[in-house]
């Protein structure tokens, strides 16, 4: 496929750079979705180490692997989708017992400029398949250090109770680069148990929890919505929907934490119901 088969979207990132998404046009998107269903029907998915883009796994299940550890090492793959080449995908599909012609057709339809386009529905699954061998090697490396390893998309995490676990870093770099990828060195972090340890947005020091700053921000946003209803100001329904989704995520992380926020949501829902009854009575 060529660039003309995609719609380009530019999304600002926190560091000021732009994330480039290639959204396939409708006809191509339909073909890619059919390919994804075909691969899923064959039972193809990422390794047991992978927690991104796999039903039943999530950022939370990824974080659970690193709960209550003395040392956590976080590493990012640079340009994850863009670094996953046609040859990597082709090899992974061939190793999954697909015939040569099928492999070629899938690569022709799902690759762009010799890479996986970020934004295509097939890219998450194909990236996990391409990473199977690397996941296996990194898991084996972790075991040599009596450490745990798991990955959420391009976020890799190693953890253990050996204070010298950071000695594993040069070997991680060697294995990753030997497989055709590159670490984003500026994102590498060594987190020790005496400081906040956050893995894919989840605090894992003693128990799974939501970061303090996110709880504070969510509490303030819910309070603002409640005050808007109490003072007759405009109510932002879109913001309320977002916050309800966030509280549902809190539930997956910590039932105890989520309970406090669900109470605030119920208060707002009760005020909305009262407001609707008053409006109906006036009309």
Give the helix/strand layout.
Blueprint: E1 6-12, E2 18-24, H1 26-41, H2 59-64, E3 71-76, H3 80-83, H4 86-95, H5 100-110, H6 123-130, H7 132-144, E4 148-152, E5 155-160, H8 169-178, E6 189-192, E7 198-199, E8 202-203, H9 212-230, H10 237-253, H11 255-282
Antiparallel strand pairs: 1-2, 3-5, 3-6, 4-5, 7-8
Helix pairs in contact: 4-5, 4-6, 7-8, 9-10, 9-11, 10-11
Search tags:
globular, 4-stranded antiparallel β-sheet, alpha+beta, 50% helix, 11 helices
What does the model show?
By secondary structure, this protein is of the alpha+beta class. Helix content is 50%, strand content 14%. The chain has helices at 26-41, 59-64, 80-83, 86-95, 100-110, 123-130, 132-144, 169-178, 212-230, 237-253, 255-282, and strands at residues 6-12, 18-24, 71-76, 148-152, 155-160, 189-192, 198-199, 202-203. The strands form three sheets. The protein has a four-stranded antiparallel β-sheet with strand order 4-5-3-6, covered by helices on one side. It has a two-stranded antiparallel sheet with strand order 1-2. Strands 7-8 form a two-stranded antiparallel ribbon. Helix 4 (86-95) runs antiparallel to helix 5 and helix 9 packs parallel to helix 11. It is globular and about 70 Å long. The model has no long low-confidence stretch (mean pLDDT 94).
Overall geometry:
globular
Low-confidence spans? none
Q: Helix and strand succession?
A: EEHHEHHHHHEEHEEEHHH
Mean pLDDT: 94
Number of helices: 11
Short description:
This protein starts with 5 loop residues before the first strand and ends with a helix. The protein is of the alpha+beta class.
């Amino acid at each position: 496929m060529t660039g003309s088969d995609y719609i380009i979207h530019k999304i600002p990132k926190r560091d000021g750079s732009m994330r480039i998404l290639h959204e396939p046009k409708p006809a191509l998107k339909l073909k890619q979705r059919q390919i994804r269903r075909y691969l899923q029907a064959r039972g193809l998915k990422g390794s047991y180490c992978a927690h991104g883009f796999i039903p039943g796994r999530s950022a939370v299940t990824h974080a659970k692997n690193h709960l209550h550890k003395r040392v956590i090492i976080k590493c990012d793959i640079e340009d994850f989708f863009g670094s996953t080449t046609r040859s990597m995908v082709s090899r992974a599909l061939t190793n999954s017992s697909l015939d040569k012609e099928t492999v070629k057709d899938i690569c022709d339809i799902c690759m762009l400029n010799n890479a996986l386009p970020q934004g295509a529905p097939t890219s998450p699954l194909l990236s996990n398949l391409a990473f199977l061998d690397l996941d296996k090697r990194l898991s084996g490396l972790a075991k040599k250090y009596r450490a745990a390893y798991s990955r959420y998309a391009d976020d890799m995490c190693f953890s253990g109770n050996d204070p010298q676990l950071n000695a594993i870093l040069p070997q991680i770099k060697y294995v990753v680069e030997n497989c055709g990828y590159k670490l984003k060195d500026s994102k590498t972090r060594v987190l020790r148990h005496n400081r906040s340890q956050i893995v894919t947005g989840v605090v894992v020091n003693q128990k799974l929890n939501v970061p303090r700053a996110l709880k504070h921000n969510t509490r303030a946003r819910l309070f603002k919505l409640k005050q808007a209803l109490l003072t007759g100001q405009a109510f932002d329904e879109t913001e309320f929907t977002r916050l309800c989704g966030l509280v549902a995520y809190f539930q997956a992380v910590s039932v105890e934490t989520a309970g406090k926020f669900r109470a605030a949501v119920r208060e707002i829902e009760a005020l909305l119901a009262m407001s609707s009854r008053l409006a109906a009575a006036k009309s």
